[in-house]
């Protein structure tokens, strides 16, 4: 019969998730798991978090339930792609800073490759007027509509939150400037502190983060320096690479709510500047729904059309760099922040505003450029039925939308 000490040691080994004996093997394991998730995680940020929970918490036990919930709360609070930031955070917790980088690369690379190939196909064969491209635009309507409904039910589910969401919708559509969304998020956070600080959860758990606070502070300072300095440097230079880095870095820095909310920011950066046409932009956004992984990899498609493969790599680096800097910078302090009721209230306010920003993106440019004739609306309704009520996987919806768009072109 085992004594109590033996039982405790055995339980500790089980909850450690079979930690590898060396840093190299730990990195290899992080790469293997994240790359598999990058190949198979369809369905958007919320679905990605479900895949992560099944793989990292239930199967491998790299985190316990409460630590995972705390990490997700942090990623929802920060600007940037929540699912990618969660993956980066898990990689850091498992294997340090390099583990976070490997986790991001594994999860991101499959969709980057697919979207760069699509960009070359689009450009080489002049697909801008193809019927199936229009079908992909209609798919984008359906995907964003599902995101709005799902987030609205959770994040704007009472009178105060719904009112804040509608106000955010109005501001986003009527006051379209480079800084309007930033000011909107800040104002929503203040409103959240005033109205929602009493809506708090229980005591948070500690996250074992192998990152020093000094490193964290350096990352936060670098994030802010780049955010301020890049636009100033861009004004003094006509260099296309500097302009691209500024546009994509700023888009990745100032978006709350994940990939769908970055759509209007990117559209205002690349279309008015003449880098891409509206048709090219929305066709790529529709294609991004067909691939697994984070929607922020849409930047790879945009970068490839602007400046080839090097442009794709440059755009991906720029749009994801803020996410990495913020996760590294905030993760060591998160357990303390989570105990602050004002922080929790601010998070609730920001999330309600995100619903309104999403709804604005659904209307323009997604809906206004995809639903042109009644047949388009019929196809969108059928795809929404398949996605929401028949529970078909997103890749099936994408194929059906492309086929439907081609049929409409022949009708």
Automatic annotation (TrEMBL):
Protein name per the record: Chromate transporter
Main location: membrane
Classification lineage: Bacteria, Bacillati, Bacillota, Bacilli, Bacillales
PANTHER family: CHROMATE ION TRANSPORTER (EUROFUNG)
Regions that span the bilayer: 97-120, 132-152, 164-195, 215-233, 282-306, 312-334, 346-366, 372-390
Keywords from the UniProt entry: Cell membrane, Membrane, Transmembrane, Transmembrane helix
Organism from which the protein derives: Paenibacillus physcomitrellae
Region (Disordered): 1-21
Subcellular location: Cell membrane
Membrane topology: Multi-pass membrane protein
Sequence similarity: Belongs to the chromate ion transporter (CHR) (TC 2.A.51) family.
